[in-house]
Fold this sequence. Notes:
By secondary structure, the chain is of the alpha+beta class. The chain folds into three domains: 2-118, Trigger factor ribosome-binding domain (Alpha-Beta Plaits, 2-Layer Sandwich); 158-253, Roll (Chitinase A, domain 3); 260-449, Trigger factor, domain 2, CATH 1.10.3120. The chain contains 13 helices and eleven strands. The strands form three sheets. Strands 6, 7, 8, 9 and 10 form a five-stranded antiparallel β-sheet that branches. It has a four-stranded antiparallel β-sheet with strand order 1-2-4-3. A two-stranded parallel ribbon has the order 5-11. Strand 7 and strand 8 form a beta hairpin. Helix 7 crosses helix 8. The longest helix has 35 residues, at 269-303. The protein is elongated and about 100 Å long. The mean pLDDT is 88.
Amino acid sequence: MQVTELLAEGLKREYRVVLPAAELDAKAQVRLNELKDKVRLNGFRPGKVPVAHLKRMYGKSVLAEVIDQAVNEANTKIVEDGGFKLAMQPKVELPQDEAAVNEVIEGKADLSYTVNIEVLPKIELGDFKAISLEKPVLAVGDEEVEDTVKRIAEANRPFTAKEGAAENGDRVTVSFVGSIDGEKFEGGSGEDIPVVLGSNSFIPGFEEQLVGIKADETRTVNVTFPEAYQAANLAGKAASFEVTAKTIEAPGELNLDDEFAKTLGMDSLEALKEQVKSRIAQEHNAQSRNKVKRRLLDALDGLHQFEVPPTLAEQEFQGIWDSVTSEMQAQNRTFADEDTTEEAARADYEKIAQRRVRLGLVLAEIGEKNNIQVSDDEVTRAVVERARQFPGQEQQVWEFYRNNAQALASLRAPIFEEKVVDFLLELAKVKEVPVTREELYAEDEADKAA
Length: 450
């Protein structure tokens, strides 16, 4: 085998490999000898088929098999001799000329091909103990618990039918049909929708115009969608709704006591408050971890600046770009609506893609160097948790992951990442800083970019 390096540029390598015909023929001969004892042909006793006869019958197919194996072995040797870690599978370019290919298959010519490989960079890990981070923390206060319990109570307040006109606080069950410029629009119609007047749960101005409505009465409600409305195709537009009231109900008394808690399946009001407090604490802790993790990743990105494999970066970018453009298309928005251009947006997302790949490689290197692994039990628990999200389909979900290695890897990867993050947070200097709820849940520019 002869190997000639044609390109060594950044993380790309290209080689020309020549596999001599004699070497391939020798390997084919060995393979034919192995077949001699296995092939059953009419007119020959088992194991007595002449190799020359086998070569006439199966020579080309055997040589093709040998070539495939030889190419794989040659590529593996190039990677091992170079001490490379591959970013992608080698890309092999075999001869395309039919006459040349036939000569190789017939054993009359050497096989010459090129192989392109993309390697992972060598990563020099930084000093993680030198990383200093601030972790925002927020204790759960009694007032927050009380407010949450009150909201739960309001959501479960009893209502009773009433005669006469609807007032603020009443629940009106309505059906409506919306239109913009006289044309009905998707999502603008609803049947038997409960609306608590004064709850501000509908478009601004909608509930106010229902005050005084009576059962079976129809009104035209004119509103304007907010500029920041989630459906971009409706944002800022004026709409008209034909609304018919089906029933009017008045709010009943609601006592925050043990009896109310029991209607929610709790033993007492105190038990309900403890559960609420625990849930809020989980939310705060999750948000706190997200913040400190983001800052840790920023620090890692600052410590490790290196070229990333172009193909990996391109694949990551394409995934991001497809998601962004699909969402914009669904919302009928353009880059101009985002105060940017397609070229500028591409440049921004390419940087984000490179950062993601770089951090992924850094985290993988840290995990490998420190023997951080994900156990089969941890993956199994993740599969079980995933299956629970699909009641009635647990078995199908289980089978899907059991038979799909790529899907299973998608569960293993985030577990691995979190374990590496835990490892790094143990080494870094982390200072807990008390913050307000507004500060904890504020979305900064870096979070938006991520």
